[in-house]
């Protein structure tokens, strides 16, 4: 049965069908008949084997002994095997002649075939065992007997039997080494099994080498003429010869991997290094098992490379495939090298370095020679030279990873990919750790190494969540080594403080039970879990694409809080897993140590900077791969690396993303990459190319289908936003304009990032993320890892990071607005918001209330760098968002208000005020209150909705301070003013609104403008009864800032608080006033921090001098004798740091000195006065309302547009109405506008104040003035009692023009000439009289 002998049947000769009697024909017939006979014998052997196996599976009685079914066959085989073993051993001991030796060799071949059949998958489960010995041990003993026989005879056995025995031997070796407790006896047995493995592999490769080069290993084995081989082949799962699976090859590599890990752990237990590669180990001998297994793995790869089928595939690939197809097509021998690389990189130190270099050099040289014979062109190196194998192996590993990610492999490719994934999934950190640590070793093949690493880094970070978490927090500057400490204190305190801070926003508006104050840590974590595990809201998009709930569209601060909370939860879960693993087996501890070391290496930034510099610096790749990699492949690999690097960088920067610029100022990765120009430009190039992809309208199915490309595009843009926003923190305005502004070039500038291009690209993307297809809160909180969830998370991340960069650029644009505009104002507007939309978007019943606001954070000191706009600003933003009907608009206006034109924001701001006035100035409530208190005149001044005050003109400020300041928030009510003139007489004017406007305008001029400025302008000095200090001082730019001389006067704080309420009241009543406030002071009103560049908007000369220190030499700085102190106010010196008066300014610390000085002058000095002013201002105007505007826009809200000199006469003419018989066509009307048009700007403003009580035209033009201006005709003459008389009467006085300012009404007498009208009108507006003039 097992020797395969068959007799010849003469009748088979007739089957040839030949009739010729010639000698040649007869020979041909015999040859053909012999072939047919052999084919039938092989078919019969197949059939018999198939029948036997089928009976085994069906359990049919076989008639051999008393056994039945598969168990019976197993027992019969066992008996037969034991008998043959005994005979073979006896024959081996008695054999003395050649015939005996041949007979013994035949017995060994039969024994090997029988043993292989017995160990086949169909029967191995019924392997005989007793109570004293396991099945595995029984198999081991049989193989050891086989090894003993082979030591006495080298007769070749069946190749198929050898393959099966090889697989079983490798399996048993792997099981043995995986137990990690190998004794000496078992170790000796394993050495014998490895010797058996060596013989079996020699048998396989020798039989393969004797066949034609066009057949592979499995094809050669299946061409054997012995029917016994078919008994083995029939047991194979696959029947197709061409689709055979090299399982034994994979087992060989897997066995090497297990032995490498085993010896690594043994070395670590003995105190040796586990991952080092540069150890001088020439005196160290390699373990026999490792050396033999590695050699056979190399031979396997060489065998795969030598087959002609593979060469045909390689030739076809080189001829037909281009671009990414070349990189996504990898041959089996290349997959073998990749698998071998992953195994060696786990722990290369288990081999002797010199031996390993020599062995792999010889391997690569043999591989190079094979490829040169196939047509490769590179020259081979000298035989004495060592080939640096690590970069080449890294290259093939990256190619295998790309092939597994980008293509659908065949059956043979699939088994190699599976083996590679199995190795990487368990040891990817060790593999990548070795690759990263070798970054500076291989200089000759730097490009090949550099272009391969990003692919492996991206693969590892995407599939190893714990490594990604460690790396991203290392990039933030955290000490990740402390995460795995077993200290209980660290275990309880990790992340809780940070999580509690962010969970306050994430849980706002959610049903979270937080009444338990005894366990704050557990409560904070529970709050996080509630915020993260929200139900998905994506299902609503299938039914409605235009309506979203407020829970879906949470404001940006809440989204940012959800994002940060998710990062902290990832940190906590990773910490818990690592602590558990660090207490596990030694091998697992090694993986944890490699993970932490790798995360530090990547997160610290220097390695990433070196990699980025190699990728994005324009250079030609240097090819030095000894013919193994072509130049075209290297160029394609460079392109692929430039695509993978941003994705890997995005994973590293995950926790560095956020809505606040400067939050991660301590990040070492940001500090290095953000100021590396090639990295920024490389990322910008990748980002700008993807704008159309990210903003393209696609269906849900199309987005899911294109999710890998979309995710990669979102990742690279998020990385650019994080780096560029951090970069802008340290770039002053002059450098910014020099680098990122091109005033002459309207298009793209090669090699340069234009700020205008960044603004426009971000506008398109943010318009999609905010408005077209808005990001939902569930996009961040979902914990699924499918493609759709990852895509939504990356969209949310880009929303947060993109908003941060867009706002940073807008702040820069606002600061430069008066000098240079690096983009047009409409570049910030969303298309929909720039057009027509809901004219009344305010919910009147939900207008922001004036509850207690946390103003303590507004004190500007060194410890409050971000306190101004963190807690109070975010909470106020949520309150403002609740005032709008559309949650999309609410999110936009609280995060990026510049996306809406200024005029529309002014209308929204006015709508907010009008809504509040409905509550505070209810006339019906006022009337009811008045009727109820008719008999009590003392209550008349405090009736609901109105406040009446009496002000003496010669005590304007003191009366106002005493009567209005105590009102506090009640100052939002209507205020009716009655003036008392200098003679003590009450003026006749009735306040319908105009008197109060004049009063407020005069009060603000008196209180804000310093006395010296008034004297220079020729204004009257204030009376001695109304003396008050100058609360503001004039900057060199002729703007106002708080007077620093009053810094120590705490009694002045109440005055600043009052002035804040007065300015807030002017804005509340839409009254434009004169004071031009300094932009740094306006930034404080908006709750923003000032930077060094804001100093030039307060004191340009000082800014110029302080900035020049950066460019001075060390000698020049030392000669100045500066110390870390500065002056504040009059004759007051403050230290910038503790002991600063004794610390000299040098070249090393001059940057710190510059920023400390600017921070002191811009944020610390006058902080008490500013805080008091803000407290009063926010009694009238909530902080979130004014955050709709930038600083320069806020100034326009206070005093109007300075670009308009005087008034817009034509605009006023267009909206003016006429009464009393006047018509625009009459001469007197034409004279009026001619006279007004001929006035200078100061006279025009006086004319406007005479008519409306306000010297500045409305912010949105005269069309927004309510009521509309009107000109009414009156009689020309009056008698001494003011009674009208006939115009023709020669007696009487000619009237002057008068006005009713509450109605914006000009009463114009019927003058008879233009000259008379001019004289009377100018006299009236220049008189500056009170309300008794008429």
Automatic annotation (TrEMBL):
Q: Any idea which residues are catalytic in this one?
A: 1302 (glycyl thioester intermediate)
Q: What is its EC number?
A: 2.3.2.26
Q: Where is this region: Disordered?
A: 1-30, 505-550, 853-872
Could you confirm whether the keyword Transferase appears in this record?
Answer: yes
* Keywords, in A-Z order: Acyltransferase, Transferase, Ubl conjugation pathway
Does the record bear 4Fe-4S in its keywords? no
- PROSITE patterns, A to Z: HECT (PS50237)
Q: Where are stretches of biased composition, namely Acidic residues?
A: 510-523
**Which top EC class applies here?**
transferase
Q: Where is the composition biased (Low complexity)?
A: 16-30
Annotated catalysed reactions:
S-ubiquitinyl-[E2 ubiquitin-conjugating enzyme]-L-cysteine + [acceptor protein]-L-lysine = [E2 ubiquitin-conjugating enzyme]-L-cysteine + N(6)-ubiquitinyl-[acceptor protein]-L-lysine
SUPFAM superfamilies per UniProt: Hect, E3 ligase catalytic domain
Skewed-composition ranges (Polar residues): 526-536
The segment(s) forming the HECT domain are 971-1334
Indicate, by first and last residue, each region the UniProt record lists as having compositional bias (Basic and acidic residues). 1-13
Task: Kindly list the biological process annotations in GO that this record carries.
Answer: protein polyubiquitination; ubiquitin-dependent protein catabolic process
Query: Which GO molecular function, any one, fits this protein according to its record?
Result: ubiquitin protein ligase activity
What protein does this entry describe?
HECT-type E3 ubiquitin transferase
Species of provenance: Skeletonema marinoi
